[in-house]
């Protein structure tokens, strides 16, 4: 019984430390990001392609540290803010040429900037591109960007160039 008296507080302390480290790695991201002013994205792309939700969704798919939030995550903890800054996606699917998009972001922890990036990806549609629409093709770019940002989050740096932005 005497040893049990010391073991319980030790177990509680270990669990509390594990919880603290687990929450420190969580990155809050808005589940819907915006387009930057002057991004000159066609209204049809904004309305139909759902890029504002696809990039965060794919980021979450590739990073277990990401927590998607519905409203302003505030400035406490780790917060990643992102914006779609450019989308080149003329209508006509593969037949109107390659598509690309650019996303920029900043990672803050308790208000201090830890890193920033510009991510760009392009696609011609891949296999069977002739059977894909514009939103499907630009969606491939959003998926690749989500994967690029997830990799960057493991070791964020300032002014990083991700994907095709190199």
Which terms would index this structure?
166 residues; alpha/beta; Rossmann fold; seven-stranded mixed sheet; 4 helices; 29% strand
Model description:
By secondary structure, the chain is α/β, with parallel strands linked by helices. It has one domain (27-163): Rossmann fold (3-Layer(aba) Sandwich), CATH 3.40.50. It has four helices and seven strands. It has helices at 2-24, 43-48, 51-62, 134-153; strands at 27-30, 34-35, 66-69, 78-88, 99-109, 112-123, 160-163. Strands 1, 2, 3, 4, 5, 6 and 7 form a seven-stranded mixed sheet that branches. α3 packs across α4 (134-153). The N and C termini lie far apart (63 Å).
Topology:
Blueprint: H1 2-24, E1 27-30, E2 34-35, H2 43-48, H3 51-62, E3 66-69, E4 78-88, E5 99-109, E6 112-123, H4 134-153, E7 160-163
Parallel strand pairs: 1-3, 1-4, 2-4, 6-7
Antiparallel strand pairs: 4-5, 5-6
Helix pairs in contact: 3-4
| Total helical elements | 4
For this structure, the CATH topology is Rossmann fold
Shape: globular
Distance between the termini: 63 Å
Q: Multimeric state of these chains? A: single chain
Structural class determined from secondary elements: alpha/beta
Q: Mean of the pLDDT scores?
A: 85
- Report strand %: 25-35%
Just give the CATH class.
Alpha Beta
Q: Helix fraction?
A: 25-40%
Indicate the CATH architecture. Answer: 3-Layer(aba) Sandwich
Largest sheet: 7 strands, mixed
Low-confidence stretches: 9-23
Q: Strand-and-helix sequence, N→C?
A: HEEHHEEEEHE
């Amino acid at each position: 019984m005497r040893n049990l008296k010391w073991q319980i507080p030790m177990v509680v302390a270990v669990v509390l430390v594990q919880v603290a480290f687990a929450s420190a790695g969580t990155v809050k991201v808005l589940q819907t990001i915006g387009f930057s002013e002057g991004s000159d994205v066609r209204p049809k792309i904004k309305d139909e392609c759902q890029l504002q939700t696809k990039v965060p969704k794919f980021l979450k798919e590739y990073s277990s540290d990401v927590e998607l939030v519905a409203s302003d995550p505030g400035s406490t903890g780790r917060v990643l803010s992102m914006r779609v800054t450019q989308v080149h996606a003329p209508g006509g699917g593969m037949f109107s040429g390659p598509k690309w998009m650019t996303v920029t972001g900043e990672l803050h922890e308790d208000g201090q900037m830890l890193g920033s990036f510009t991510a760009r990806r392009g696609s011609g549609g891949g296999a069977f591109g002739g059977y894909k629409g514009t939103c499907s093709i630009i969606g491939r770019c959003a998926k690749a960007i989500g994967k690029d940002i997830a990799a960057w989050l493991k070791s964020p740096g300032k002014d990083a160039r991700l994907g095709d932005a190199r």
